[in-house]
Design goal:
This protein is an all-alpha fold. Helices cover about 95% and strands about 0% of the residues.
């Protein structure tokens, strides 16, 4: 279960980095950071969903 929190935390860090890059006007890096944020947040969600479904059976 801890790996879900780590992936989610990393996703939020990348999201914060994307916001900072967007504010400063560094749009190419903002796009990269958004892709990384979505990848980490989606992987955390997919693992959480699988764990939730496994526990419900």
């Amino acid at each position: 279960m801890r790996h879900i929190y780590i992936r989610g935390s990393l996703g939020l860090i990348w999201l914060a980095a994307a916001i900072v890059c967007g504010i400063s006007g560094n749009f190419p890096m903002m796009g990269l950071y958004l892709v990384l944020a979505v990848a980490f947040l989606y992987s955390a969600y997919a693992v959480w969903k699988k764990e939730k479904n496994k526990g419900g059976e």
